[in-house]
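Hey L., structure's done. Input below.
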Amino acid sequence: MRKTYLPLAGVLMLAACGDITVPDYQNPPLDDLLNPTVNTVRQAAVGVLQGSRQDADTYVRWAGIVGREGYYLDPNETRYVRQLFAGSPLGSNFTGSSYWTTPYRNIRTANLLIEATDKVELPASEKEAIKGFAKTIQAVDYIQINNTRQFIPVEVNTSLDELTTPPPLVTSRDQSWAFISAKLDEGLANLAAAGNVALPFPTPSGLNEFDFNTTQGFRKLNRALKARVEVYRASEGKGNAPDIARYQAALTALSQSFITTEGTVNPLTNRELLNIGAYQTYSAGSGDVPNTLNDPSGKTVADSSLVSRAQLRADNSKDARLVYKTEPGSFSLVSGLGSNLRFTIYSTRPFYGGGGQASPIPMIRNEELILLRAEARWFTGDKVGAMADLNFIRVNSGGLAPIAAPATDDAFREALLYERTYSLLFEGGHRWVDYRRFGMLAQLKTRGTVRTGGQTSNVATWLPLPSNETLPR
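Output:
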């Protein structure tokens, strides 16, 4: 039965202004963007960046639970196990609205910002820089929404007189990925038109740390995200017939990104080369947003089977990524799911900085780019280049010995999935996305911790649409 979906009614309305002395950059007053000033536009640009990070920790946690990377074992909230881990999420506010309302609201704020930019007196270079920045951040939000739902709306209303127009769901996954890819290309064109200038608004350490606070640096970030999208397009649902043209497009984008293998790496003491990238940033300051993946309560745990599945180094110690990113902790058990393994990447060993509630979460970083290139090279016939990239990560991130080229594409996928699991652990839902795009979710069910007590658990293919988005008009 076909349904007509309501507009993203609760999603697309901007909230009212917050504290009168501290601007609510994430939710600027609607009238301010419809009748903007230069200051309003610059504040809204800051708000778009802040808005994209607001639920990034939720995305990592939710997708990480489904993908058997880590769990949230709260005896007072067992739905993290009973619904998310068990593979039976509902369209209620708990799972249906999670990572939906906030990113769509932020996408609409970015649309309003783009429209407002043409109404104020700014140099043409600054206008183009803001537009290119906004479209790139919209792509970040779209990628993560598209990774959680099978079909999504991609058109989001801007003007007040369009608020009652229902944005339709796309009719295929290819359509949504093509839209996101085109959004990134639009953003790149704007950033190129801006020339080489600093982004014309305050930027946080997540952009400043590795020089993504200029249009030149942001173009490289834009192309990194483009490469991720094209790899997804090339592989998702394609089975043994990947889209070679999309992999070629990914290689082109990677050549224009910030990917590098030049530098010194030690997997346990110096991972800066691998961690070059752009990050969502947080703080424990008043009025700001903390990173809740840093969880002193001990409820956030890593999948315990990561220990038994980790490969051994030459000295018989475990994969250096496991050693660096996790540590033993006290045992927790909720609804038959337990673990005594904790994450350190958001506490004592962050990607950069001091860790704790101010620990950053990656948007995308160099280690992922190298693995994306390994995949794209393999399926475009450059097996030597693919193995050079795969082994670079094995040696420099895992501390493992290099391996010979696998005999088949399926064997390569297995090798790639191992590296991606440990390299990108609990930072962006990658394991769930990877096993799904390769049609291997059934295997993922057996590659994580199993609930005790005879309780069955499946791996959800998608999170459901929010219930109020599926009501007939």
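Confidence is low (pLDDT under 50) at residues 1-22. Residues 1-55+99-190 form a domain with the Serine Threonine Protein Phosphatase 5, Tetratricopeptide repeat fold (CATH 1.25.40.890).

-- N.
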